[in-house]
Write a sequence for this structure.
């Protein structure tokens, strides 16, 4: 874990402990800090805006309800939150297995502000997100946890109940698949 | 198309940077979430973002309370005035002495006693004055009454 991550974890633990003692504002800060990554993770996995929002809400609701049970252990608040989000996602997918969830276009999720206002970047990001969609569920989890919130291999391994080594290998494999998929779309990331 | 981001350190660096950027380009919507969150865990009330004008904040409450106090005072005084001398002007008439029809100030304080006193005085005066004088004064008073009636009509 890097120095920045350690500092962030300490800050998040502090917010949680303040929230436990009844400081609503502390949970508000916690929510503001982590809503975006959780929502992005859920959107990448669900590709449906409304459902992703609902799941994000359920995730924070669960954390809020169980806040007294959260203990400062080896796991980081991010790890805890993403575990809750992942479980919510699994529940949601199970619930909606019979239904066909309407797909939305990736382009509608990408904000112009974040893409340096270039069409080329937007198209590239859409292609990347489409290629990620082709990956296995676990590979998607790996990529989002590792790249979206910079969780360590060890943390991800704990979340997915796997060994550190297997997570590293799976991550490399996912990247390789992604590279190949992008290459088929005419986007080459080979050096 | 070849994407080589700035000085990639490993084989995967460029791809990792691109994927991370793609993830972070996803724009979350806060509208619904914020509404849900404020309902779920309401925060401590904060001052309004659009402050009220000085006029509505200070003047209206002050003048409103002053006006309410004044109104209450008037109502109290009005209710008390039913038991105080009114000082109103009333037209007193006597059948026996029409010549002394005049405007007089009546008082609610022992009105019957006052009336009896006046009537006695008028009787005494009427006995003293001659019939001719009484007729003249009666004619005058009739004229006054007629002119007053014209005025009110």
């Amino acid at each position: 874990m890097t120095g920045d991550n350690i500092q962030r974890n300490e800050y998040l633990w502090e917010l949680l402990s303040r929230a436990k003692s009844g400081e609503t504002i502390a949970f508000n800060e916690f929510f503001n800090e982590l809503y975006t990554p959780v929502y992005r993770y859920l959107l990448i996995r669900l590709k449906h805006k409304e459902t992703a929002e609902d799941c994000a809400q359920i995730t924070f609701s669960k954390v809020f309800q169980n806040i007294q049970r959260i203990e400062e252990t080896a796991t980081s608040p991010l790890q805890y939150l993403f575990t809750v989000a992942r479980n919510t996602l699994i529940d949601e997918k199970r619930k909606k297995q019979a239904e066909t969830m309407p797909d939305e276009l990736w382009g509608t999720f990408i904000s112009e502000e974040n893409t340096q206002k270039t069409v080329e970047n937007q198209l590239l990001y859409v292609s990347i997100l489409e290629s990620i969609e082709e990956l296995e569920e676990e590979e998607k989890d790996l990529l989002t946890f590792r790249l979206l919130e910079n969780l360590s291999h060890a943390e991800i391994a704990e979340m997915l109940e796997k060994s550190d080594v297997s997570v590293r290998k799976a991550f490399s494999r996912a990247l390789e698949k992604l590279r190949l998929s992008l290459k088929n779309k005419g986007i080459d990331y080979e050096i | 198309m070849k994407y080589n981001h700035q000085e990639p350190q490993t084989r995967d660096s460029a791809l990792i940077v691109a994927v991370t950027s793609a993830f972070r380009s996803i724009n979350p919507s806060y509208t619904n979430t914020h509404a849900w969150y404020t309902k779920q865990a309401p925060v401590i009330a904060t001052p309004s973002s659009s402050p009220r004008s000085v006029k509505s904040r200070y003047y209206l409450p002050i003048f409103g309370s002053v006006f309410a106090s004044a109104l209450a005072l008037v109502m109290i005084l009005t209710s008390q005035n039913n038991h105080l001398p009114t000082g109103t002007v009333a037209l007193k008439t006597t059948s026996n002495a029409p010549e002394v029809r005049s405007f007089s100030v009546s008082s609610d304080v022992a009105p019957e006693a006052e009336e009896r006193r006046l009537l006695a005085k008028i009787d005494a005066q009427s006995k003293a004055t001659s019939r001719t004088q009484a007729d003249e004064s009666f004619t005058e008073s009739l004229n006054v009454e007629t002119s007053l009636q014209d005025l009110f009509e």
